[in-house]
């Protein structure tokens, strides 16, 4: 945690353009934005992946992301959260991006490689995970 850039931002060791802070959440503007208003909303609890964060440290995340979207005037936007390197996570501290999408050129660009579904296999998978919920 001592080397975590986001933990250092929370502690004030690295300056940020802080938008919001509470006991459990910190939000600030991204210094390498994909568009104007691109912000990060992070739990103060250090954890690399979403599954590492206690539920009570996540309760304010989406309301804060929503408020940032509202105050920036974003009408189209993405809320993005990545877990692990192959899922494009670069900083090992859970963080949510609120990325305004003002036009086709700015903001998040993604592909969506949808695959054909075998409904019998999908039903079998559904039943296996539903039983664990």
From TrEMBL:
The active site is at 95 (tele-amp-histidine intermediate). Its cofactor is Mg(2+). GO terms for molecular function: adenosine 5'-monophosphoramidase activity; nucleotide binding. PANTHER family: ADENOSINE 5'-MONOPHOSPHORAMIDASE HNT1, HIT FAMILY PROTEIN 1. It comes from Emericella nidulans (strain FGSC A4 / ATCC 38163 / CBS 112.46 / NRRL 194 / M139) (Aspergillus nidulans). PROSITE patterns: HIT_1 (PS00892), HIT_2 (PS51084). Gene3D superfamilies: HIT-like. Signal peptide: none annotated. Keywords: Hydrolase, Magnesium, Nucleotide-binding. InterPro entries: HINT (IPR039384), Histidine_triad_CS (IPR019808), Histidine_triad_HIT (IPR001310), HIT-like (IPR011146), HIT-like_sf (IPR036265). Belongs to the HINT family. It catalyses: adenosine 5'-phosphoramidate + H2O = NH4(+) + AMP. Coiled coil: none annotated. It comes from the Eukaryota. This is Adenosine 5'-monophosphoramidase HNT1. A motif (Histidine triad motif) lies at residues 93-97. GO terms for biological process: nucleotide metabolic process. It holds the Pfam family HIT. Residues 5-108 form the HIT domain.
